[in-house]
Fold this protein.
Amino acid sequence: MQHTILLIEDKTGLRDTLQSLLELHQYQVITAANGEEGIHLATAHLPHLVISDIYMPVLNGYQLLEAFQAHEQLRYIPVIILSARSATEEVNLALAKGAAAYINKPFLFANLNANIQQLLQTSGAAPLNP
Amino acid sequence: MYVNRRQMKNGHTTAAQDAANLLNNASNIIAITSHEFKTPLTAISAAVELLAARLQSNQQMDAFYEKNLSRITTEIFRLNSMLDEMLTINTIMSGRMSLNKQIIDVVQMLTTLRSNYYADPEDTRTFELLVTGVPQGIYADHNQLNRIFMNLVGNAFKFSREKAPLVKVDFEERQVVIRVIDDGIGIPAADLPQLFQPFFRASNVNEIAGTGLGLSIVKTFVQENDGTITVDSIAGEGSTFTLSFLYHSDSL
């Protein structure tokens, strides 16, 4: 029984490492390199949770949040934003656009995982049968 | 804002405009590169955690690996706080700092800091908090006051090794006086006059990491919030940083 997480990050190295860390913690992971690819995968797979960067080519994290909010199914999927920018205005903007949590880069995986667990619990997402 | 190329070509900028543009460009470069540094730092930190997790799951983790992996993580986060200090000083120097003052309960802020503070995962001490008098509110920017406390408490931990630092809060007649006291390496008397200058580091800090920006940020934030800060220190015996802020008329 696994939860599916969609990981959207344009930096290949970080994306691969994070994917391995998440898989080691028993999550099923699908990945995208930008917001547009992320929206396609989210619509096709309806993951339990999304982890997304903000500054990415093609379609950024803010635009992704807007697209999720405007979509009747995607709007219920919690999105965790990972960003190197910690200015209050940027955090507030992401939260106002519907982000469920905002984590500053660099971060400890334990902190990210605590947020994932809490959001999966509160959103009541049932794990998929294998 | 970057220098307009056409303006430059036509020689339509004054020397003052050129200087202002140059400063602005330098400030933007610092802001952009500081953020860019965080991307590889995040990748390194995640890779170290993946390595640790893999060693753990393969039952190959031992004390040697654990100590050194945790040391890398500590240094990554230390480097990250240096970047944050650079970003803050850059915001101050470019005049882009914004203030959002509100009534603040100092004791509550320090209590929260006390339970959340962990700069060095290997240091298990927590600071002592001693309050006297009747608590009253002060009018200050929440983020800046928090940064002031985090920096002074962080230094108290960083430069002492045995006794936990002490934070004394005295609610006097018209003002609150907050003292951050440690029994660490102290500051040589000759260094005290320059202590709050940007990039200045006391002569006895040796290999203890830092940018020399922390206390200059603290001083700026204290002034922005109409407070005062002084330091008493004896090399080899410890330091006391004393802050004072007048009460807000509406109080808590």
